[in-house]
């Protein structure tokens, strides 16, 4: 006659389940906070100090409000504007809506942009175009490459870990990595290339239209994107002067 015996099924103690769930919840919350706040804090710690005259580009109140918004889903309009906006900034016309570009005659409608330090090679810049998700945009009121004045180029950015130099939605995310002396190369459709050397980097407010001004003592290039990358708080303006190859 076979013998049988009963073995009680063991179950995970309820307290242990709650402990694991709590730990997962905490780590999930920290991950969300890190994802939201890191671009701002990293920008202040590692990039902002190199911009002359810039002590604190992002006010502490906005940082704290952005964190509150990440945790509680609250916060005022300034904090919400850090990562979200009703304005579609993939459209170039929304960058400076109060300024209408002058109608200038261009010998070509597009050209290529290369920034060796950022692994950007032959990125397309279209004169007077609109969609920043498909190309860089040459502001139609600015000089063309190689001429006196400044060729102004808008480029989109996003959080640094999504950077892809071939994706126009993130192409200027690493622009803060540039320093004085770095090269920017513009190549026209006639295969003539112009090398510019970075000589100035500054951060301005989104409504500062002085960055669109033209000065005609030399040939310049001006690159503009939003900073901290992934936000719409400020604008990084990188200026280079024409140099010989």
Description:
The chain has 245 residues and is α+β, with helices and mostly antiparallel strands. It folds into two domains: 15-80, no CATH class; 92-243, Sortase (Sortase, Chain: A, Beta Barrel), CATH 2.40.260. The protein contains three helices and eight strands. The protein has helices at residues 14-47, 60-72, 77-80, and strands at residues 110-115, 120-127, 136-138, 149-154, 183-187, 193-204, 219-227, 234-243. Strands 1-2-3-4-7-8-6-5 form an eight-stranded mixed beta barrel. The longest helix has 34 residues, at 14-47. The chain is elongated and about 95 Å long.
Q: Tell me the domain tally.
A: 2
Q: What proportion of the residues form beta strands (DSSP E)?
A: 15-25%
Mean pLDDT: 80
* Number of separate helices: 3
Per CATH, the class of the largest domain reads: Mainly Beta
- At CATH level 3, the topology of the largest domain is Sortase, Chain: A
Low-confidence stretches: 53-58, 62-84
Give the beta-strand count.
8
Q: Separation of termini?
A: 97 Å
Largest sheet: 8 strands, mixed, barrel
**Secondary-structure element order, N to C:** HHHEEEEEEEE
Report helical residue fraction: 10-25%
Class from helix and strand fractions: alpha+beta
Radius of gyration from CA coordinates: 24 Å
Adjacency order of strands in the biggest sheet: 1-2-3-4-7-8-6-5
Named CATH architecture of the largest domain? Beta Barrel
Q: What is the overall silhouette?
A: elongated
